[in-house]
Inverse folding.
């Protein structure tokens, strides 16, 4: 869907460099006509094995790695010598981390919250009362209820999210 891409050429292990590449990818996202699409990634979606590395990256006061930034993209281009020891962490607070125990442990991605994915209620809340004339409920004056509700989630537009790893790396 659309003219852009939502993943790099290959999945990679979680790192600051890959996260910057994903951010650049979303920043250059295109719509179906080839026009720039406004995507402002604000959420980092993490599997359980990346909870603490993700928090360290987003909350460190100083630059959490010693590799300097490159011009144009995070891994290609001229060296800027920016981002070495004791440089301020430019990623601090950039994304809101969302950790999930249901993702594969090493999976991660970034995207814009409340865009691209929809959560809908697939069925209304149903409340069923037990027959008050049955068994001990009748004798003890008890009322028992059962409630059920069903939700469904699905992608409606994947251009607002970029996947760094599906958990296979």
């Amino acid at each position: 869907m659309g003219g852009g891409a939502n993943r790099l050429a290959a999945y990679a292990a979680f790192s600051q460099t890959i996260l910057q590449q994903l951010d650049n990818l979303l920043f250059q996202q295109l719509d179906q006509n080839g026009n720039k699409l406004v995507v402002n990634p604000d959420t980092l979606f993490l599997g359980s094995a990346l909870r603490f590395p993700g928090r360290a990256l987003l909350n460190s006061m100083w630059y959490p790695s010693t590799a300097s930034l490159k011009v144009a993209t995070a891994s290609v281009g001229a060296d800027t010598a920016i981002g070495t020891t004791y440089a301020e962490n430019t990623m601090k607070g950039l994304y809101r981390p969302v950790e999930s125990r249901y993702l594969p442990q090493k999976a991660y991605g970034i995207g814009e919250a409340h865009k691209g994915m929809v959560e809908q209620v697939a069925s209304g809340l149903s409340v069923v009362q037990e027959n008050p004339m049955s068994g001990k409920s009748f004798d003890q004056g008890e009322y028992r209820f059962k409630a059920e509700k069903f939700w469904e989630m699905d992608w409606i537009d994947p251009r607002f999210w970029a996947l760094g790893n599906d958990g296979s790396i």
Observations:
- Residues 124 and 149 are 6 Å apart (CA to CA).
- The two ends are 25 Å apart (CA to CA).
- The chain has a mean pLDDT of 80.
